[in-house]
Amino acid sequence: MPSQDLKPVSRVSDATDRDDLQPDDQGEEAKLDWLRAAIKLGCDQIDRGECIEFESMDALKSYIDQLCEEAIAEVEAGAVARKRD
User: Fold this and answer.
1) Count of CA atoms in the C-beta half-sphere (13 A) of 29
2) C-alpha distances out from residue 37 to 15, 34, 50, 53, 82, Å
3) For residues 51 and 9, is the Cβ–Cβ distance under 8 A?
4) Contact criterion met (CB below 8 Å) for 39 and 17
5) What distance in Å separates the CA atoms of residue 65 and residue 34, rounded to the nearest whole number?
6) pTM for this entry
7) What are the phi and psi torsion angles at 81 (to 5°)?
8) In 3-state terms, what secondary structure has residue 79?
């Protein structure tokens, strides 16, 4: 299993990056510019070591399943906490 202090390449590091990477409706060139920016962001994260490498597709699937279980548990815990309030 990967180290917890690393983040998958697909995650964006802060809100500014997310805002800059929203596609708009200005045509194909704008979509290509958006895609190039998203690819550059991902490549930059890889260059900085902010990525997780998986030895197999099964390892990737297990990691995604773990993330899903954690997210579901957080949502359920929040729902329980809201019911108590």
Assistant:
1) 1
2) 15, 5, 17, 22, 39
3) yes
4) no
5) 29
6) 0.45
7) -65, -40
8) helix
- Residue 47 CA neighbour count, 13 Å, CB half: 6
Per-residue pLDDT at 1 exceeds 50: no
Domain boundaries along the sequence of the chain: 7-53, 55-85
**Rounded distance, CA 63 to CA 55, Å?**
11
CB of 7 within 8 A of CB of 50? yes
Which of 31-35, 39-43, 70-74, 76-80 has the least mean pLDDT? 76-80
pLDDT tens digits, 16-64: 555 555 555 568 888 999 999 999 999 999 999 999 999 999 999 999 9
pLDDT reported for residue 27: 84
3-state secondary structure of 82: helix
In the chain, the amino acid numbered 74 is E
Q: Which of 8, 14, 12 is nearest to 38 (CA)?
A: 12
